[in-house]
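Now read this:
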Amino acid sequence: MPFRDQTNNHIIDELSWNQARNQQRNWETIQQIIGLRAQATVVQVPEHINNRWQFVFEVDSPGVYSGTGVLGDLDSLLHECAGIPMCATSNKILGLQPQLITAGANQNIWFKTINTSIGEY
């Protein structure tokens, strides 16, 4: 120590290590939720942009995350995310909920369909 991890977190002590490790655990949880219905074939490394983590993934079955079968509808994916516990990653963010919230004023996870012809989200 000290060192920077792959997401450029500065690891200087046990607290910073645990916060970075919790970020990784949360990322793994999101990947597991995505994998409940389909195997992601391409997953971009998450990027921290505008104070949010973003990534793109593809699946080989367009519409797999839709409860209605409509391409671009992600209601099943959102339903499966709702209430999933997340690890605290920072003591600086007051009011951050310890679980995924998929709708409403406290929403903290979003999905957007980019290209449904190839199943990219």
